[in-house]
Amino acid sequence: MGKITMTPEPPYYAVIFSSERTEGDKGYEKMSEKMVELAAQQKGFLGLESARDPDLGITVSYWESLEAIKNWKEHTIHKLAQERGKSEWYQSYSLRVCKVERQSFFEI
Predict the structure, then answer these.
(1) pLDDT band at 108 (very low <50, low <70, confident <90, very high)
(2) What stretches of the chain show up as alpha helix (H) in DSSP?
């Protein structure tokens, strides 16, 4: 399956980050790539899916546990990115943490 993350059998957790960007890059793209690389190195990380159009970006990251999510939220470099997001990169955003209890996949 191409860009869809193959996750283990539930339960596990999904963090849904939806955002509206400010104008201009201001280092966003580079930091975004770094965050994906860094998240993938974290204990409990299961995968990530992301899509963006000119108006809205949605990133869903998958985690083994709430503790893994908490550790990622508190990671020093991630905290720096969060602060820059609030001050430079985002007009608005939402963050939702969900427990995945059921899943199914389809592929031709």
Answers:
(1) confident
(2) 28-40, 66-73, 76-84
